[in-house]
Amino acid sequence: MLDIKTYQNKKVLVLGLGMSGVNAARLLNQLGALVTVNDKQKFDDNKAAQALLADGIKVITGSHPIELLDEHFELMVKNPGIPYSNPMVKRAQELQIPIITEPELAYQVSESDWIAVTGSNGKTTTTTLIGLMLNEAGHTAYDAGNIGIPASQVAQKAKANETIVAELSSFQLCGIQTLHPHIAVLTNIYEAHLDWHGDRSHYVAAKMRITMNQTPDDYFVMNWDLPEMHTLAKQSRAQIVPFSRQGAAGARAQLQDGWLCFDDEKLFLAADLQIPGTHNIENALAAIAAAKLAGVDKAAIQAVLSRFSGVKHRIQYVQTLNDRKFYNDSKATNVEAASVAIQAFKQPLVLLAGGLDRHLSMDDLIPLVQAHVRAMITFGETAPLMNAVAQKAGIPYQQTANVKTAVPLAYAASKPGDVILLSPAAASWDQFPNFEVRGDVFIDAVKALAESEEA
């Protein structure tokens, strides 16, 4: 870790905790900053705040008091999930207090090269594959960021000859200033998080911040099957490295005659991938491009792709019960991600769907549900919207309280040979703190169902 003096004796406010806030606060404290942490959760229920107070860090909990900003802070490190419309954040902007997110702080202390991955869908799978390929080839790489491992924690241990492979969300990218990946990856852009960003143009602009500090010595890996990328590429100073599943002209990583190729070198048969769906062909191509640019050899790429069976909560196989296969795709927090999952299977589906209502249309699901889904089990705030999808698709549906109660209903609606798929097409925050908890509840419910069937 670089021993920077930037924050010595500077007053810094960390707004919002979670893993990123806790690690940012501790790192800033280590760097000599005068740290204050403000989190809306009450202190008695806030173990993170209690731990930071024990470390000697000033903690204010229970609300976000705007008058706190009268204490002349020189920096705010904002939890990525807190929108810029938040009164505390707006007031900080009025006071011209710089606002960053935790990955920016991590980059400032990092000795390592960075590979950064963003996109509406496929970020985690692509990030994971790149890290595995680098390590398989004998490099030392660490996954970090939105994948669930705070970048500021990883940056403190990663050495100069090692690599940080960071998954970065649009929320995190809004708060970077100097973060400069040598290789950046943009898997795709669809409509997502518009309630947070306000409109699609702001969302796209946030994604494109991943390349804003790149130079002609860097690489920007982009999905050339999406026409929008051809225009967005002009905003980057980096060398554009396109990938394509559909044979787009100029793509360096592409699907050719069933093979995943880079610069026309055949690397791996797409049919031999352990992860289902055409979207995972795209994720593999993006990872191959980044890995090859980082010097990974063919054998390492083949070894990883031959055994990689997916990331938890992303079309994750759970188990088979009486010839029904259960899959957990809790990470499908939008219609596009759920559409990808539905199309990944050839077997008839019983679909579990529902979650936070962001007031977005679900109509794009109708033809897919009609073509692939036997029955739907709906829950959460968007249950009425999901019921309407099922009605328009002409398939049976049942509404229930939550994911846990949905599992036995889905099993009852299924037939041997079916896939029972949790792919909610909505965020989890109406009933769960995050999609991981929602997915774990689903897994536990499947296990409980299996035990009851065996009893």
Overview features:
455 residues, alpha/beta, Rossmann fold, UDP-N-acetylmuramoyl-L-alanine:D-glutamate ligase, Protein-Tyrosine Phosphatase, Chain A, 3 domains, nine-stranded mixed β-sheet, six-stranded mixed β-sheet, 17 helices, 36% helix, peptidoglycan synthesis, cell division
Q: What's the architecture of the largest domain, going by CATH?
A: 3-Layer(aba) Sandwich
CATH topology of the largest domain: UDP-N-acetylmuramoyl-L-alanine:D-glutamate ligase
The geometry reads as: globular
Number of helices: 17
Number of structural units classed as domains: 3
- How far is the N terminus from the C terminus? 55 Å
- The beta-strand count equals 20
**CATH class identity of the largest domain:** Alpha Beta
Describe the largest sheet. Answer: 9 strands, mixed
**What is the CA-atom radius of gyration, in angstroms?**
23 Å
Proportion in β-strands: 15-25%
Strand sequence of the main sheet, in spatial order?
A: 7-8-6-9-10-11-12-13-14
Mean pLDDT, as a whole number? Answer: 95
Low-confidence stretches: none
CATH superfamily of the largest domain: Mur-like, catalytic domain
Percent of residues in helices: 25-40%
**Class based on secondary structure composition and strand pairing:** alpha/beta
